[in-house]
Amino acid sequence: MPNLKQKSSIITEGDSRAPNRGMLRAVGFTDEDFKKPIIGVASTWSDITPCNMHIDKLAIEVRNGIKKYNGAGLTFGVPTVSDGISMGTPGMKYSLSSREVIADSIETVSGAERFDGLIAIGGCDKNMPGCAIAMARLNIPSVFVYGGTIMPGKYKGKDIDIVSIFEAVGQYNAGKISREDLHAIECNACPGAGSCGGMYTANTMASAIEAMGMSLPFSSSIPAEDIKKKEECFESSKYVMQMLEKGIAPKDIMTKKAFENAISIVMALGGSTNAALHLLAIAHAVGVNLTLDDFDIISKKVPHLADLKPSGKYVMYDLYKVGGVPGVMKMLLEAGLLHGDCLTVTGKTLGENLKEIPPLKSHQEVVRDLKNPLKPTGPLVVLKGNLAPEGALAKVSGLKSPVITGPAKVYESEEDALKGILDNDVKEGDVVVIRYEGPKGGPGMREMLAPTSAIAGKGLVDKIGLITDGRFSGGSHGLVAGHICPEAQVGGPIAIVKNGDSITIDANKQLLQLNIPKEEIEKRLKSWKAPPLKFTKGVLYKYAKLVSSANKGAVTDL
To answer: How far is CA 182 from CA 165, 173, 175, 245, 389, in A?
Structure first.
């Protein structure tokens, strides 16, 4: 038998470690437990958000599995923030930085306690990439478990979710619904535990991590309150122990091909633009050379197949009922659009895992077949041009035409832009510019869900453009381009746009352009001065000082 205690033996073996063992005896370890590999259980439980409110119970199932499969488990808490609650407020500045806090927390505890293996359970958006980054850094046998999606809410016979509330704000402001409707949608959109139901960031990243091979098949599809989610937690322990026995670590799984599989599933499902930011960060942690060019290449060959919210009709639960993410992967694999030879946490290759998976159900409308896609190419489009020399991202799913040229309406913050939209200062044909919301300038690169939802609620999705050096929620859709690099805070061209300047967003040509002479751009940039950072101490100050550009994943250890 291989040595399964390569990390923990330094804590549990030898007479000199009697004090260490004494501490562990206090939390329930016995003589027999000291002979077993120690598996850390990273629980992101909290009752501040429905995404994570049930994870304490899932962690118990993981611990039961560890005991069953002859390991010794130790559970530790990992912080989370609720994107949905902090959205549109100054609190959202902490969202992206929380990804680093989560990764740092898991790395810190696992490194200090010398865990032999790790199982991490995540719920809200930043949990998934935070856990994956930590696993990549630690490189000990690890399995990720997704807490699962929320069930859809119901109002007037229709499925609704959290984004329905954001859009209802715009609808109410436009006089399209009553105050009673707004209140009823608010009260019925989130019926219980689980992450936001559409193909928003949480479900996008859970799907990407599954496609990458770091979670069990169906992990991203099983709803939070389904009994199969607890069964998955129990079984994850079996696989982390098998990984220990076989010597399989995250760097064996998270290869360049695995990242290409993750990007492919994001394109097919119509996933969040945040996938680019997070996959770039995970790749950095594991030492894989991934760039926006990889997203561009895959976008051009993988079609958009799943008709999921925010731009489509259905939610993750509907996808689960027709065959889930593995069903979509099986279709892509058979079409030669996935690498089947990639190793996964099951100890089998992706192709071997998918052999056992039934195909997607026929006569269903959630996922199109490859001959009849929603769009023949992926919906995430990399844009470049004189406004984004280092790149930007647009999501073009559901748009009649992903092209607009119009006068700029410039705002220095998300709050100012939202007020302008709700006060009808923004007109059809305008291009809204929201700047100083980037990783450094925000700081924290807030998601512009409130402004984009207000535009959608007013029925102007195809008629108003919006660009930002911030980012978007997975729930955002429309003629929007984010992740503009360089950001305004470091002197990117978005910093020198003036009201009335003509701007073109053209996803067909992959162009983001300020339509003024090059000499005028150079003149404005020469006279531009960086404003002071918005924070001078604490977490956000440290983040602003350390964080890289969005096209590098907005990482803090570059």
So the answer is: 7, 10, 11, 55, 41
Query: What whole-number distance in Å separates Cα of residue 553 and Cα of residue 272?
Result: 14
Helix (H, G, I), strand (E, B) or coil at 390: strand
Is 455:483 a contact under the CB 8 Å cutoff? Answer: no
- Alpha helices (H) in 213-300, listed in sequence order: 227-246, 250-253, 256-269, 274-286, 292-299
Which residues have C-beta within 8 Å of that of residue 150, sequence separation ≥ 6?
50, 51, 161, 190, 191, 192, 193, 194, 195, 196, 197, 223, 224
CB 109 within 8 Å of CB 140: no
Q: What distance in Å separates the CA atoms of residue 34 and residue 24, rounded to the nearest whole number?
A: 9
- In the numeric block, the tokens 């100050």 are attached to 541
Closest CA to 445 of 83, 103, 130: 83
Instruction: Please list the pLDDT of the chain residue by residue as tens digits (558 residues).
Output: 568 999 999 999 999 999 999 999 999 999 999 999 999 999 999 999 999 999 999 999 999 999 999 999 999 999 999 998 998 899 999 999 999 999 999 999 999 999 999 999 999 999 999 999 999 999 999 999 999 999 999 999 988 998 899 889 889 988 999 999 999 999 999 999 999 999 999 999 999 999 999 999 999 999 999 999 999 999 999 999 999 999 999 999 999 999 999 999 999 999 999 999 999 999 999 999 999 999 999 999 999 999 999 889 999 999 999 999 999 999 999 999 999 999 999 999 999 999 989 999 999 999 999 999 999 999 999 999 999 999 999 988 878 889 999 999 999 999 999 999 999 999 999 999 999 999 999 999 999 988 998 898 888 888 999 999 999 987 777 899 999 999 999 999 999 999 999 999 999 999 999 999 999 999 999 999 999 999 999 999 999 999 999 999 999 999
Residues noted as catalytic: 473
